Amino acid sequence: MFYDANGIRLAYDDQGTGLPLVFLHAFPLNRSMWAPQIALLSQQFRTIAIDLRGHGESDAPLWDFSLDHYADDVCALLDHLAVPQAVLVGLSMGGYVSFAFSRKYGNRLKALVLADTRAQADSPDGRTGRFHLAQTAFSQGAGAVAEIMLSKLLGPTSLQTKPDLVEYVRKTIQAAPVSGIVVDLMAMADRSDSVPHLRATTCPVLVVIGQEDSTTPLADARLMAAEIPGARLAVIPAAGHLSSLEQPNVFNDLVKGFVEGLR
After folding, report:
1. Is 16 left (phi over 0), alpha (psi -120 to 50) or beta?
2. What CA–CA distance (Å, rounded) separates 19 from 4?
3. Which pLDDT value is given to residue 62?
4. Share of the chain above pLDDT 70, in %
5. What is the pLDDT of residue 36?
6. DSSP line for 91-158
7. CB 95, CB 70: distance < 8 Å
8. Phi/psi zone of residue 210: left (φ > 0), alpha (ψ -120 to 50 degrees), beta?
9. Any idea what DSSP says for residue 187?
10. What is d(CA 68, CA 187) in angstroms, rounded to the nearest whole number?
């Protein structure tokens, strides 16, 4: 399904009934990464997964966008579906979008699941790394980005024992529009520091981290859990940065238990 937001055509899936869960994907993937969650959780909840601008079936305009624009897209989807409040489940870049959404549209949040993400802004070295990756995407294409990103996204256990998952991640990145990759990198590099806003978070929050995540390590998750009032922290063994794909059953159980507790 599609909707228009701020002049951009965006794709989404909407399945199930009940409390709405909105899934926000990682960079540089798309909404298909949430298939294991949709398959189970749509039996009990309304599951909504969006292709963020620049990915999947959504438009991929090349321009200077911020993560606030991504948050505006999510709010526009809630308006389009007449959903007053939802649980946002954001992984990695999806977590950054969740922070932006929380600052702008906090009244629309029922709860937050922040998975394999961080509240801090990029360090100077982090910004430089994004610049170089954007140059690689521009000059060598998405395939080169895929080879660089695989070891950052998947933990050693998955890389060694889950060849089908490795191939899915590789092919998904290879299919990503270069414009989407570049715009994402600029938006993430310029994102603001969300740490000062953590204590102002009033909705329930679950922080999830893969034990083997070297991209946003356990220390980042502990910081969020410590600063957000009442937040819970869950560590998933044998999972890297894409914990929802690497250990989907564990991830699903965590989200299901957390959302059921909201009632």
Report:
1. left
2. 24
3. 87
4. 100
5. 98
6. ETHHHHHHHHHHHHHGGGEEEEEEES--SSPPPHHHHHHHHHHHHHHHHH-HHHHHHHHHHHHS-HHH
7. no
8. beta
9. H
10. 9
**Mean pLDDT value across the chain:** 97
What is the phi/psi pair of residue 253, to 5°?
Answer: -65, -40
Q: Is the pLDDT of residue 263 over 90?
A: no
Whether the CB-CB separation of 213 and 155 falls below 8 Å is answered with yes
Query: Closest by alpha carbon to 190, among 131, 236, 259?
Result: 131
- Look at the block and give the residue holding tokens 């794909």: 245
State both tokens at 87.
């649980």
Q: For the chain, give the number of residues.
A: 263
Identify which of 60, 11, 55, 86 has the alpha carbon closest to the alpha carbon of residue 175.
55
Q: How many CB atoms lie within 10 A of CB 62?
A: 12
Name 236's bridge partners: 210
- Terminal CA-CA length for the chain: 29
> Mind listing the pLDDT tens digit for each residue in 197-228?
999 999 999 999 999 999 999 999 999 999 99
Angle at 132 between CA 99 and CA 173, to 5 degrees: 65
Which of left, alpha, beta for 139 (phi over 0: left; psi -120 to 50: alpha)? Answer: alpha
Please name which of 240, 166, 172, 180 lies closest in space to residue 210, comparing C-alpha atoms: 240
Catalogue all structural domains in the chain, each as residue range(s) with its CATH number. 2-261 (3.40.50.1820)
Alpha helices for the chain (secondary structure H): 35-41, 67-80, 93-105, 124-140, 142-153, 156-161, 163-174, 178-189, 218-227, 243-246, 248-261
**Those residues with Cβ within 8 angstroms of residue 122's Cβ, 6 or more apart along the chain or in another chain:** 130, 188, 189, 191
Quote the tokens at residue 227: 């600063």
